[in-house]
Amino acid sequence: VNDGDFEKQLKRLQKIVAMLESGDVPLEKGVALYKEGLELAAGCRKRLEEARVEIGGLGQAGLEEQRHGDD
Amino acid sequence: MKARLAERGYFALERKRPLPAHPRRLALVTAPSGAAIRDFVRIAGERGYGCEIRVYPTLVQGEGAGRMIAAAIDRANTQGWAEAVALIRGGGSLEDLWAFNTEEVAEAVFRSRLPVIAGIGHEVDVSIADLVADVRAATPTHAAQLLWPERRVLVQQVDDLETALGRAFGAVLAVLGSAVDGLERNLRHLSPAQRIAGWAERFDREGAGLGQAWNRLLERKGAGLDKAEGALALAFGPGRLDGVAAETENLAGRLGRAGGTYVAGKSAGLDLAAARLAGLDPEGPLARGYGLVRVARTGRFLRRPSEVGPGDRLDIRVQGGHVLADVADAAPEAETRGERA
Fold first, then answer.
1. Is the model's pLDDT at B229 over the cut of 90?
2. Which residues of B touch A65 (CB under 8 A)?
3. Residue B157: is its pLDDT beyond 80?
4. Helix, coil or strand: residue B56
């Protein structure tokens, strides 16, 4: 699960924002960075929306027990 | 035992390791059923951006539980798949939690290469395992909260970054926009349209100048032509011809007069010469008794006695005719004079 690296994407997005905020970016590069940033933000958001936990190591019985376990 | 473990540095803060910020692979050492694992998994599912949890099931109380827990921790380390180990157990009596106070569990936690977070019992419960673990959570739920950040916070972080991205890009565009405005203003001066307009204007101006120059040239040539024509008229025009004719007449008159004068002069000279010639007329002296003696033999005038001898016939021209005479004697002047005398 989550083979894409959320944190890496987030860091890249932070770096892009910092680069654009520095103001020292040519237009073409700025546009490319902005586009990349938007894609990263969308990717991160999608990641968060689809985030889930995968459980392993229990076996079928264990899973059943975990799901319908006694309270 | 606690004092002995402390002496060995089991609780030392300096050996506590930080947990990964967001473990994506977690080894969960706990009972495979019950509230603890259920709560932990539920909270994990609500937080972070997703992860994998591998359960290392174990007894958490009763006979042999401590050994099983230690073995599970060791197995997680041996497998090396996880980034961290979570050791949890739901609330219970002190008796129930006894396994987590055993030395074997403490040693397993202590020797774990993977950082260990422990969430055992309720908030008030503190086990030896809690103290040896790198991070101590109050409860299983709390352990999950410490392991993964709130998803809401992550969403907010992404939203904030996206907002900052838009703002930063807007600022870049604004800066570049003003730069472009400046460049555009500068460019307007250099634009082909502007230059062509400038050229057109200059072309018009030069064209007008050329026209004017042409007209001036024509005027000047015209004036020159007039002047040449005037000069020509002056040189060869009727007036000039009249003048030439008059001059010619004048010259002719002068020539005539000069000729007359010359001829008159010459005539006078001739008269004079004739008069003078008259004086040399050999006939003249004849009238006065002189005679011209010519030797008949030679035909020459006789000038000296030596030119003749006895026997020579002399032709003597006198006024009115010839006299032929023969020479008796011819002698120089002294002899004759003497003879005469």
1. no
2. 32-33
3. yes
4. strand
Among B53, B155, B172, the residue with its CB nearest the CB of A53 is B53
Q: Is the pLDDT of residue B3 over 60?
A: yes
Amino acid at the residue B222: G
Contacts with B, A 41-70, CB within 8 Å: 41, 44-45, 47-48, 50-58, 62, 65-66, 69-70
In our burial notation (b when 16+ CB lie closer than 10 A, e otherwise), range B70-86 reads: bbbbbebbeeeebbbbb
pLDDT, one tens digit per residue, over A42-60 is: 999 999 999 989 999 876 5
Task: Quote the CA–CA distance of B62 and B59 in Å, as a whole number.
Answer: 7
Q: How much is the pLDDT for B281?
A: 67
**What are the chain A neighbours of B24 within 8 Å (beta carbons)?**
1-2
pLDDT of B162? 95
Distance from CA of A5 to the nearest CA of B (A): 10
Which positions ≥6 away from B311 have C-beta within 8 Å?
B326, B327
Best CA proximity match to B75, nearest among B57, B88, B63 = B57
Q: Pick the more confident residue, B145 or B302.
A: B145
- CA distance, residue A31 to nearest chain B CA (Å): 8
User: Which residues of chain B neighbour A7 with C-beta distances below 8 Å?
Assistant: 21-22
- Residue where the block lists tokens 């939690």: B97
The answer to whether A27 faces chain B, any CB pair under 8 Å, is: yes
Separation of first and last alpha carbons in chain B: 222
Whether complex ipTM tops 0.90: no
Does B158 contact A21 at a Cβ distance shorter than 8 Å? no
Q: Which of A2, A33, A62 sits opposite B32 (nearest CB)?
A: A62
The helix or strand, by DSSP H or E, that contains position B313, with its residue range, turns out to be strand B313-318
Token duo for residue B120: 């055992």
Is A20 close to B173, i.e. CB distance below 8 A? no
Q: What confidence category does residue B254 fall into, taking pLDDT thresholds of 50, 70 and 90? A: confident
